[in-house]
Amino acid sequence: MIAKSKSHLGMWILPVFLIFILGFIPHLEAASLKIAATILPVSDMVREITGRETEIVTILPPGANPHTFELSPQLIKELDGSAVIFRIGKGFDGWIAGVSDNLPAIQLIELNQGIQLVHGDPHYWLSIQNAKVMVGHIAKTLITIDPSNQAKYQHNLNHYLQTLDQADQQVRNKLSSLPQKKIVTFHDGWCYFARDYGLEVAATVESSEGNEPTPKRLVQLQNTIQNHRLHVLFTEPAVPKSLAHSIAEDFNLIIVELDPFGIKDENKTFVNLMLHNADEIAKALNQ
């Protein structure tokens, strides 16, 4: 009697065990895809297309300066196994090219194809219209390397494009009735955002990344601020804070920090990042 009970028990255990294992197989397959991106906004775009189960590595750490960043052996190790690295290109994240020396199998994909650059400025992701082009490239690449999930990637792309259109309209609503449309930025990286939403970058502090302004540039900056009665200096987390505060004090400006990379916790998605920057600009220029 006991032997018979054990036999019946075995008949139940095997099917249940198989169901348990088979139930995990799709998740194991999905998780096997590993993707990397040089900056967090691009990582979020990738996640919107792939879904939540894909492993995504964001290369640039929070607060790091993308123009002086260097790849470390630990980071090279972390990138091992990635199918593709999505990058900005155009001189912004040139350091990622070094990964090919150690991991030649990883594809490096620039996302600027089909985007009209303004004076070669690589900060083109700070435009929702450009982001729509970027996610199209991301989806196309993912379908190429993982064709079995084409339907999912296409569905997620269509849904995300609608989300981006809604966010774009929200930003327009926030910035459409500003009393002042001219802005002063510390770093020259906001021309795409300004172009999309009717703003004008009247002046920047830095002539190029990392170079302090010359006396001649400071005179020009002062004249622009006075002529247009500007009262805000828009900075970023990675800019030299001592210099920014010194200029703000000399020219009687208030400092408002924008976030181009999603460094702040509330800006970890691209949409939240763009809405946050619109809110900061709207609050500052409505004062």
Overview of this protein structure:
- There is one protein chain.
- By secondary structure, the protein is an alpha/beta fold.
- The chain has 10 helices and 8 strands.
- The protein has helices at 2-31, 40-50, 73-79, 99-102, 128-145, 150-175, 191-196, 215-228, 241-250, 270-285; strands at residues 34-37, 55-58, 84-87, 107-110, 182-185, 200-204, 232-235, 254-257.
- The strands form 2 sheets. The protein has a 4-stranded parallel sheet, with helices on one face. Strands 6-5-7-8 form a 4-stranded parallel sheet, with helices on both faces.
- Helix 2 (40-50) links the parallel strand 1 (34-37) and strand 2 (55-58).
- The protein is globular and about 60 Å long.
SSE string, helices as H and strands as E: HEHEHEHEHHEHEHEHEH
Q: Given this structure, which CATH class of the largest domain is correct? A: Alpha Beta
Number of strands: 8
| Cross-sheet strand order for the largest sheet | 2-1-3-4
Shape category: globular
Low-confidence stretches: 1-31
Span between termini: 86 Å
